[in-house]
Amino acid sequence: MSDPCRPRRGNRRRFLRQMGRAALGLGSIPFPLRSMAAGDAREMAGQANAPVAHKNLPDVVVVGAGAFGGWTAFHLVQHRARVTLVDAWGAGHLRGTSSGETRVIRAGYGAKTVYTAWAWRALAQWKHWEREWRTELFVPSGVLWLCAEEDAYVRSSLAALESLKIPYERLSSEEVRRRYPQISPDGVSFGYLETQAGFLRARLATRTVADAVARGGRVLVAAAEPPAAATARLERLRLADGHELAAGHFVLACGPWLPQLFPQFLSQRIRVTKQDVFFFGPPAGDRRFESPGLPVWIEPASWFYGVPATDGHGLKVANDHSGPPFDPTHGERIASPEGVATARRYLAQRFPALATAPLVETRVCQYEKTPDSHLVIDRHPHYENVWIVGGGSGHGFKLGPTVGELVARQVLGLGGEAPPPEMRIGAVAYPESVDSLATSSF
Ligand SMILES: Cc1cc2nc3c(=O)[nH]c(=O)nc-3n(C[C@H](O)[C@H](O)[C@H](O)COP(=O)(O)OP(=O)(O)OC[C@H]3O[C@@H](n4cnc5c(N)ncnc54)[C@H](O)[C@@H]3O)c2cc1C
Questions:
Q1: How many angstroms separate the CA atoms of 134 and 122, rounded?
Q2: Is 392 in the pocket of ligand 1 (CB under 6 A)?
Q3: How far is the CA of 162 from the centre of ligand 1 (A)?
Q4: What distance in angstroms lies between residue 67's CA and the mean position of ligand 1's atoms?
Q5: Ligand 1: does its nearest atom lie under 6 Å from the Cβ of 396?
Q6: CB distance 188 to 176 below 8 Å
Q7: With a 6 A CB cut-off, is 400 part of the ligand 1 pocket?
Q8: pLDDT in tens, 16-49
Q9: Do residues 89 and 95 make contact, with C-beta atoms less than 8 angstroms apart?
Q10: Distance from the CA of 33 to the CA of which of 121, 145, 327, 345 falls in 20 to 30 A?
Q11: Cα end-to-end distance, the chain, whole Å
């Protein structure tokens, strides 16, 4: 197709110079990961992102400007690939899963230690790039886990934090009450605080990453059609308006739309569920429910979690249980009355001062959930030059920088950490009759 959105050469050169400078001043920590302090962000981000010299610049089309597609495109641009990032509605649109106002970033992941390591690395990358972009994307509120018991999940999480030297503080129920008098710790036997964790301004971040891609590649608003596999390599991707995008490599990071695009191999792998999110308004002039007065909190026993009131939104409360099946294009985004009632009951118990707080906003988002909550990062089963990235399962946003980095390197054949086998398309499937499974994203 003709190329109306190609950036002018000067812009692209200037961008690459800036990226190169950002990278060259930095030291070295190789990918795969090793334990490091989040303060090592500059050092870490530099080595992994150092551009490689390509004689013939590879060209890559990335479909989906959410957390996974956006960061993949960004890392590809840094590697001097010629990148086209395509999104059906544009980065940060409200149907996308990455478009919540906030997303939690924490490293406790039970026995799924790969995500502990990835989240910790991602935290360093978020901090590095928000500084480079001069945009506050990460809020270091801390993440407080409120635990009813020291079960296997909690024990594994703490062991993983310790082995990667990720700081946390253990708090008795009484210490939780003393430190955060706005929280009633009834039913909490102890807590632990991930002191360097917090939350991300997700929608802003999604748009900021796409803007960074646009400074070195091109970003299009267009709907891609699923390729009909007939050959070993995909040469061009058809758009709904009849145009085609030719490229050497393709990455399809279409979030909750993936099962619709590839029902033949993803409908049993990823299920899309409706997730209601509630924002309650604190009393006038009361800052106890904002960071730094209140951290993010997570309750593994009830699967409730929340984010401090931020940027004029209320205190965010949600439950991690998978909701009913949901269509991300046509689904009406209206929260259920039962969900409101349950959230209110929970709020009254955990934050008594907000027992009568008004509901000031609701959001309906969707999980693109795999049966075991592992991400999906794999080559297309038929096309050797097409990667599929998704299955965020209610926890993928924070991991965007790390996943994007890994995928970009795989696409360009640069080696580094390969996606683990549990993230393969064929790794695990839902039983036919089941819409979703009661597995937590925590
Ligand atoms: C309520 C809720 C709370 C969550 N909380 C957290 C949290 O606290 N921490 C965390 O880390 N994660 C969290 N998550 C999960 C996280 O938001 C997702 O894992 C992540 O945003 C998924 O990103 P994605 O890029 O796969 O999908 P998306 O953000 O949906 O991006 C996919 C993009 O692909 C585009 N697209 C689809 N099909 C086409 C096509 N044919 N042509 C062109 N473009 C197309 C879409 O327009 C969309 O923009 C939460 C999710 C929800 C719903």
A1: 18
A2: yes
A3: 30
A4: 6
A5: yes
A6: yes
A7: no
A8: 444 333 332 222 222 332 223 333 333 333 333 4
A9: yes
A10: 145
A11: 43
**Domain spanning 9-98+203-269+372-423 has what CATH number?**
3.50.50.60
* The pLDDT of residue 351: 98
Q: What is the CATH number of domain 132-199+274-368?
A: 3.30.9.10
* CB distance 244 to 1 below 8 Å: yes
pLDDT in tens, 211-224: 999 999 999 999 99
Tell me what the mean pLDDT of segment 67-81 comes to.
98
Q: Can you tell me the distance from the alpha carbon of 137 to that of 102, in angstroms, rounded to the nearest whole number?
A: 9
pLDDT at 308: 98
What are the two backbone dihedrals, phi and then psi, of residue 76, each rounded to the nearest 5 degrees? Answer: -65, -40
Which atom of ligand 1 is closest in space to residue 276's alpha carbon?
1
Distance 353 CA to ligand 1 centre (A): 33
SS3 content of the chain, % helix, strand, coil (to 5): 30, 20, 45
Choosing from 125, 139, 207, 257 the residue with most ligand 1 atoms within 8 A of its CB, the one to mutate for a pocket test is 257
Q: Is the CB of 405 inside a 6 Å radius of any atom of ligand 1?
A: no
Q: What is the distance in A from the centroid of ligand 1 to the CA of 171?
A: 33
394-441 residue pLDDT tens:
999 999 999 999 999 999 999 999 999 999 999 999 987 776 666 777
What's the whole-number mean pLDDT along residues 111-140?
98
Please tell me if the CB atom of residue 227 comes closer than 6 angstroms to any atom of ligand 1.
Answer: no
Which SS3 state, helix, strand or coil, does residue 301 take? coil
Is the CB of 64 inside a 6 Å radius of any atom of ligand 1? yes
Measured CA distances, 370 to 48, 158, 265 (Å) = 29, 25, 13
Q: How far apart are CA 415 and CA 232, in angstroms?
A: 22
Does the Cβ of 38 fall within 6 Å of ligand 1?
Answer: no
- Average pLDDT value for residue range 345-369: 98
Centre of ligand 1 to C-alpha 389, Å, is 11
Question: Domain spans of the chain?
Answer: 9-98+203-269+372-423, 132-199+274-368
Q: What is the pTM of this model?
A: 0.90
Length of the chain: 442
Q: Is the pLDDT of residue 15 over 60?
A: no
CA–CA separation, 413 and 424 (whole Å): 18
Query: Ligand 1: does its nearest atom lie under 6 Å from the Cβ of 272?
Result: no
Ligand 1 atom index nearest CA of 99: 29
| pLDDT for the residue 196 | 98
